Here is the input.
Amino acid sequence: QVQLVESGGGLVQAGGSLRLSCAASGRTLNSYNMAWFRQAPGKEREFVAAISRNGGTTRYADSVKGRFTVSRVNAKNTVYLQMNSLKPEDTAVFYCAAEQSIVIITIPAAYGYWGQGTQVTVSS
Here is the structure.
């Protein structure tokens, strides 16, 4: 099994940037596709970005394309989400997740491993 711990959340003004990190332990991350999801109060958890095992393939939600970048350093067992040009509607708890299918999946139910989440708040 793999354990995931997110960090890097916080309060930022609109237009600002944050970088989230997801550190893994228990198993090496290169066995897993990794994704970031977010959940705002009263809303369902939604897909944000994902990256394949070797980092060669990425996918993004339309709402974050051009603003967010997902990356990974397998040697450090860490995945990152660089978030630029943040908007108040980006306010949510952000979660990283891991799964082992052949292709990248954007459905939360497909992910078997989750971190505890980190709060991102964007003020207007």
About this structure: The two ends are 40 Å apart (CA to CA). The CA atoms of residues 23 and 78 lie 5 Å apart. The first strand starts at residue 3 and ends at 7.
